[in-house]
Write a structure and sequence with these properties.
Elements lengths: L2 H13 L13 E6 L2 E7 L8 H8 L10 E6 L11 H7 L4 E6 L9 H8 L3 E4 L3 H7 L1 H9 L3 E8 L4 E3 L15 H12 L3 E5 H7 L14 E5 L18 E5 L4 E3 L2 E5 L5 H10 L4 E6 L1 H9 L5 E6 L8 E2 L9 E5 L2 E7 L4
Parallel strand pairs: 3-4, 4-5, 6-13, 6-14, 8-9, 8-13, 9-10, 10-12
Antiparallel strand pairs: 1-2, 1-3, 7-15, 11-12, 14-17, 16-17
Helix pairs in contact: 3-4
Length: 346
């Protein structure tokens, strides 16, 4: 690996440390190098606080070395005033010799303006280093701003014979587990990485889920319930105070504490995503049920899918959703199999 790539890889590693706490800002890491030695590092730790470039520069003990140093940053330095001053101006003020950037920030307030400002000041700028990795780091941020919708991850578990659930004949809320306990913990980790988690009305009625990350340390996602006619009982677990809950429905608009009812004129995927976009939700993991997930697939509005294949068989029941593409990756996990899909035709 070349030196530029090596230092940019370190930027990516640092940036990941700000996951969820930096929201709604992107994840950014920065490294300052002098004579092939890292003399400063930083990442965007929390929304409203110092950006990665600021933290990296502040971490340098001997500031006189900055004039002879290169700063590596995973995302184009900002050139606008937001919660903090422009990072491009700080780099110019400290007279860094050169800047190496992972990828351009397509957010309209930046989008090449940072690079332009740096170049005009006489600083050498190079960009596109580990560009794919740096864009993937902020796939949620880029999707939200470029496509005006959340980044969408579909997730479900299915049996060896292709069922997602048994037929609920007695309207029971007993969950028919398909995968191993360790896989359940992994799913909770996935939940902690996303801004929202979405289910349909039938899943709430049948399983009475809490949709939290109780098996791992992390932030509970915002719960999103599709309940057109408000069928779900107000005592359901999804309405407890462990996390904010958005109820998309056709009957009323109302906000009471952590519960937010949003009225929709129709329940198309476009209307649902538009409502979530207006609530600044950058990513969602869609956990069910089969009809809800299949609607996203049929409309071809999804970015990733994660399918958990258990060892058991139901012989009959509710058929699992179907994807027409091949998995990008598959892995064994405590007796289960996990298939990862990427939508390249959206």
């Amino acid at each position: 690996m070349e030196k530029d790539q090596l230092y940019m890889q370190r930027c990516v590693e640092l940036a990941k440390l700000g996951n969820r706490s930096a929201y709604p800002n992107p994840l950014v890491g920065a490294v300052i190098v002098h004579n092939d030695h890292i003399i400063g590092e930083g990442y965007h730790q929390k929304y409203g606080e110092a950006h990665a470039e600021v933290n990296a520069i502040n971490s340098v003990k001997n500031k006189s070395l900055l004039k002879e140093s290169t700063i590596y940053v995973s995302l184009e330095p900002c050139a606008h005033f937001g919660k903090t001053p422009p990072c491009a101006d700080l780099i110019i003020k400290n007279q860094l010799k050169s800047v190496v950037i992972g990828c351009i920030d397509t957010y309209s307030e930046v989008s090449g303006k940072g690079i332009e400002r740096l170049k005009k000041s006489g600083i050498e700028v190079k960009f596109g280093i580990l560009e794919e990795e740096c864009r993937a780091l902020n796939k949620r941020f880029f999707t939200f701003h470029e496509k005006k919708r959340p980044y969408i991850i579909l997730k479900w578990a299915e049996t060896k014979d292709g069922f997602i659930d048994k037929i609920r004949k007695d309207n029971t809320s007993k969950i028919n587990w398909i995968t191993q306990p360790e896989t359940k913990t992994l799913v909770h980790q996935w939940r902690s990485e996303e801004h929202g988690i979405l289910i349909g009305c039938n899943t709430a009625l049948n399983d009475n889920p809490t949709l939290t990350v109780r098996n791992v340390e992390g932030i509970n996602p915002i719960r999103i319930l599709l309940d057109e006619n408000l069928k779900v009982n107000k005592e359901a677990s999804i309405f407890n105070s462990e996390s904010e809950t958005i109820i998309l429905n056709s009957l009323r608009n109302e906000e009471k504490g952590h519960l937010k009812h949003i009225q929709l004129s129709d329940f198309s995927i476009g209307s649902i995503l538009n409502a979530l976009y207006k609530k600044n939700i950058q990513s969602i993991i869609v956990e069910g049920g089969a009809k809800t997930i299949q609607n996203f697939i049929d409309e071809n509005i999804w970015d990733e899918a994660r399918v958990l294949l258990g060892k058991i068989e139901f012989n009959e029941g509710l058929k699992a959703p179907k994807l027409s593409c091949l998995p990008k990756q598959k892995t064994d996990f405590f007796g289960d199999k996990i298939f990862f899909y990427q939508n390249n035709n959206k």
